[in-house]
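Anyone have tokens for Amino acid/polyamine transporter I? Sequence:
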Amino acid sequence: MATTQSLNSDDARLAELGYKQEFKRHFTLWETFGLSFSIITVVPGIASVFFISITNGGPVSMIWGWLTAGLFITLVCIAVSELASAAPTAGGLYYWTHRYASPRCRNLLSWIVGYSNTIYLMAGVASTAWSIALQIAACVTIGSNFIWAPTTPQLFGISTAVLVAQALVACFATRIMARLQSLVIAVNFALILVVIISLPAATPKEFRNDTRYALGRFDNVNDWPNGFAFCLSFLTPLWVIAGFDVTAHISEEASNANFAVPWANMISTSLAVIIGVAVNIAVAFCMGNDLLSILSDPTGQPFATASCSRASISLTTPYISILYRYCIITLAASRQTFAFARDGALPFSFWIYRMNKFSGTPVNAVWVVTSVAFILTLLVFAGPTAITTIFSLPIVAQYLSYIIPIFCRFAFKNDFTPGPFYTGRLSAPISIFSLVWMVFMMIVFMFPATPIVSSVGMNYTSACLGAWVLLSLVGYYFPFYGIGGVYWFKGPVPNVDTEREFPSSAVSMEKSGDSNNLEKKA
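Reply: yep, here.
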């Protein structure tokens, strides 16, 4: 349990950042690590996007692509964790942007980052729900002895049910969410051991590959040049090891947040890189060498065939269902949405920024996140290739929202004061390498899965992200009646010992028992 001293220190630091304590601080360091590691979920994550790495390099991309990307992902994690340690607040990225950017552009940049961060988390909710739907359908297919095969509408229906389940769990009190993390950690490591230890022991001899194949075979089925295909395979580790800001969004619910949040990120990321390599090596040695058979798996999940075991997919399915129903990403997305609404930046902020008096959680924000995720999931009807957009959009939007605050920290004169987690002289070069990496990855993931582009094979990531950024800019510069954010948005608004106010363009509400004493702007 958090000590009184740590709680007082956390509350005092939050007050220095301009906010009063509104959440209960129930997350300890262990539970914060559990939350961070739960977001990563190495085995289920690899299973969900396994088709990307195996079609863009085969075993080489599975192992060496994971390791290469993992090194740069760790640098990004360090850069973000330093910001989280310096200013632990639920606003996270957009708060840091406003704090460290030039006064001439901080409002606009904070607005863009806030909207990018919001859509990335909402897209993350959509992609995790879709991955769960795939795993559930695969389990049912196996149970029916491959008689039943899911259609896109059926998968969409399962995904919608998962979204609703995630939302319901995200409405739980913070105390309940925190206590579940120990169970999540235990189940996570149990599944990892099953794959790494049991898979090689249970694999038939005819499916075992030699070292030359498992560590050096490069298979490219998408017609891109081999080098570019290798880069495309990075989507697998980037989608699995992501969400470094998620723990930042629960900073106001964690004790000793400026220490717990960054170290939870670093420990979980380092473990994920190492464990991911081990899992991919185990699969590469045990999947056989018939790539076409693996890709044509009747469950729609090539990881099931590659692992040569129906048990693996059966174990993965309930695990994912249990784990993601703890809805960690939905939890983080709702906290970001709540924090952004707290500063009046979202439409209907007066309604979104409401704390349920029974659970002590932002229930309205949870359902806003779920609704947008539902809309994004409709992309699956655009064609099989468009499904990749659901997985690449969170990465691109995430990196856009990471790049700006990290850049602002070094590009402008500001009052950055390091927290307990700080790399000293290495901080600047680490941040520079992470910035270059993120820009490069954003460009790569705008490309379609194959060089032959059609309406069916189009990568809609750029269109979705571009439309979202355009709408946010329209909302900022809207020229009539003072509605646009340029007229009233001043970035994070301190609320210490003050009543909350919202722009006159927003519709106000009467005070209610669970509305945090909201009142309309005079």
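Residues 163 and 370 are 6 Å apart (CA to CA).
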